[in-house]
Specification:
By secondary structure, the chain is an alpha+beta fold. It has three helices and 17 strands. The chain folds into three domains: about 110 residues, Methane Monooxygenase Hydroxylase, Chain G, domain 1 (Up-down Bundle), CATH 1.20.58; about 110 residues, Immunoglobulin-like (Sandwich); about 110 residues, no CATH class. This is Gylcosyl hydrolase 115 C-terminal domain-containing protein.
Length: about 375
């Protein structure tokens, strides 16, 4: 079982490079990565606790410390950038995130001290290298906190705050627009409305929708700052009752201070049956490299490389010493998908492993074709 796919994606020294490695705005990417680290830390800690005390020090040094310390650094940077988003929305919880970042910074030093003191200091200072606060290729003179976001309490501001997924602004008068939903979205992708305080105080709220086939978690409640300044209402669609075609659902968020509104585009369409390929949700299709059918040729095919890349795995040609190939002589990877929208221009993106044109007489190329049309060949590296 693979628990964390985000472990090998970024070096800690690169987390200060802009733009930030993971988006706090789109697809909840940063929070998904953070949860993967937390899941991995839980697994590593449970394993450590189950071991005999005689081998726990070795496991801590080789496994548990890298997981705890690495996840803590990731949490520090992710919460820092989440704080920038919260500040743009005037959330009072911005300040709470800043304190959590400070706690993570302190925890980093505590973990280092724990490692250095293990086995009476046998490996003292071996992991003392600086790793937080890089400003270039060289390490900083000491670990240093990134710039943190804070907001000031303004008793004159409207305390009701409302934000939706994919927008960095909160409600200011015009209805907020959520990202569209359709029946073929990945199970991990959700739509939600965040209710929060923009000033210290307390208010009650209630969310109502004009669509009977929509349900929400936390559809009513109370938020207060300080204490419980944020709540999230997750939207669920009953697709058996949703109308066919394109429609728009409206939400009204009422509080004892003011009212906010949000709209949700809903697309329900039918797919030819039977169909077993990938289906386009929300004008994008993302397919793992290994989720293909393969057409070998002349004893040459492709093989999967488990855990290679940012997500599931990678693929490579096999065997690794083939003669020069063309689209007509080389093996094919076939990915079946069904497009639900039309566009004059579409973007096709390949994620490739690091390489070079190591043989000038055989520059690296790839070829692709859509729906059996004539293939196109492109160089991996420009001249």
């Amino acid at each position: 079982m693979r628990v964390c796919t985000g472990v090998a994606t970024k070096k800690y020294s690169t987390l200060t490079i802009e733009p930030f490695a993971w988006s706090t705005l789109h697809y909840d990417e940063a929070l998904h990565v953070l949860q993967e680290w937390r899941d991995l830390a839980e697994l590593a800690q449970c394993t450590y606790d189950s071991l005999d005390v005689s081998v726990q020090p070795a496991f801590f040094q080789l496994v548990l410390y890298p997981v705890l310390a690495g996840g803590n650094v990731m949490e520090l940077y992710i919460l820092t950038h989440l704080g920038y988003l919260y500040k743009s929305q005037l959330r009072t919880s911005t300040n709470e995130l800043a304190e959590k970042v400070r706690d993570a910074f302190t925890k980093d030093a505590d973990l280092t001290d724990q490692y250095n003191g293990l086995l009476d200091g046998r490996w003292d200072h071996i992991i003392d290298s600086r790793h937080i606060g890089y400003a270039g290729r060289n390490p900083p003179p000491a670990n240093r906190l990134p710039a943190l976001a804070y907001v000031s309490d303004d008793p004159e501001i409207n305390i009701l705050g409302v934000a939706v997924q994919g927008q960095n602004a909160s409600f200011t008068g015009e209805p907020l627009l959520l990202r569209p939903v359709d029946p073929y979205m990945p199970p991990s992708e959700t739509r939600y409305i965040d209710i929060f305080t923009r000033a210290n105080g307390t208010f009650s709220y209630k969310i109502q929708s004009n669509a009977s086939y929509i349900s929400l978690t936390n559809a009513n409640g109370t938020v207060t700052a300080p204490g419980n300044p944020d709540t999230r209402a997750i939207i669920t669609i009953d697709w058996t009752k949703a109308p066919h075609g394109k429609s728009m659902a409206a939400f009204t968020i009422n509080s004892n201070h003011s009212t906010a509104t949000a709209n949700l585009p809903i697309y329900k369409y039918s797919i030819p049956s039977p169909y077993t390929g990938y289906i386009e949700p929300n004008k994008a299709i993302s397919i793992e490299a290994a989720h293909h059918s393969v057409e070998p040729r002349h004893g040459i095919s492709y093989t999967e490389i488990p855990y290679y890349g940012r997500t599931l795995s990678g693929v490579k040609i096999w065997p690794v010493t083939p003669p020069p190939l063309t689209p007509d002589t080389g093996p094919k990877l076939i990915y079946d998908f069904y497009a639900t929208s039309s566009a004059e221009i579409a973007r096709l993106t390949f994620l490739l492993g690091a390489s070079l044109d190591h043989d000038p007489s055989r520059p690296l190329k790839l070829a692709y074709a859509l729906d059996g049309k004539e293939s196109r060949t492109t160089r991996v590296f420009a001249d």
